[in-house]
Amino acid sequence: MQQVKQKEKLKNIIPFIPEGDFYFTKGIEAFQKRKFELAIKWMNKAIEAKPKETLYACQLSIIYTEIGQYHKANQLLTNILKSTTYVDCYYLLANNYAHLGLLNDARKYANLYLEKTTDDEFKEEAENLLQLIDIGENDDDGWELDHEDELLIYQETAFYHMENCEWEKVIPLLEEMMTLFPEHKTTKHDYAHALFFSGYEEEAVEMELELLQVDPNTLYCHTNLALFFYKLNKKEAYKANIQALLNVYPIHEQQQLRIAITLVRTGYYKEAYQRFCMLSKGIVTDQLSYYRWFSVAAFHMGKTFKATSIWEEGCRKYPQLSQEKSPWQ
């Protein structure tokens, strides 16, 4: 009799079959906790449950953007635009193309968003992006494209010594540059870097902290300070500066490379490896440090063959690299 009653109860139970909204909510929760792999799984389940729900695919593209998989994100957004006019996709595409360094495409989609939007949700962001693109094409601080022969000679010479860690040679050169070209901001950060690795650690940290007060958003301050505090084993100060870099994806390749190098030098091998893989190789392979630190990141990710290949390519291009210890030594 008892078994019959239990069977009758079971017949009356309605099985819980999650729909898309349930999966979507779980995906958002995982995304907010930065559990990206789990977030992707939940979002894919949401899309399977409701394939016509544009918001789900759009949110999945945002997750891919967050982890640097811009091509996957763009593929999703492009597919959405084939069947609907979800205007936010234009801004998201513009943002992704900017990260990839494809500035013409970024400008095109940012302008499309501004033309088509009615709610202006990303209007300010799109306008700021267009300003960044214009600055990028005219350069960061107006100096990089300045063709003064004297400055270019100084820059190239200082760069060579920095790449080869020749601090005793580069410090007087950078001091001279700061006197002759006081508006050239990156020289000050290079000088602090050279000071630190010459043994003047306190002076270097103090200099960067002063520069950070002037401009709290300076990327070079955070890259230098993250590395300085890591080397000094000042964990709290280090974490504060490294966190300022982990979610930053600059448009310009040189800044992207600087972040990647900082991450690998402070033990963030996975994040560093991802950043190196995102770089446009044709732009950054004129730097010895690209090969030096990319091979280190690859080695610590267990990619020994790739690390060896990168190192050997670097040694062929820069024979002085072969005099250094390889990552596996």
TrEMBL record:
Write the record's keywords in alphabetical order, separated by commas: TPR repeat
Could you tell me which residues the TPR repeats occupy? Answer: 20-53
| PROSITE patterns per record | TPR
Any Pfam family hit: TPR_8
Query: What is this protein called in UniProt?
Result: Tetratricopeptide (TPR) repeat protein
Which organism is the protein's source?
Virgibacillus alimentarius
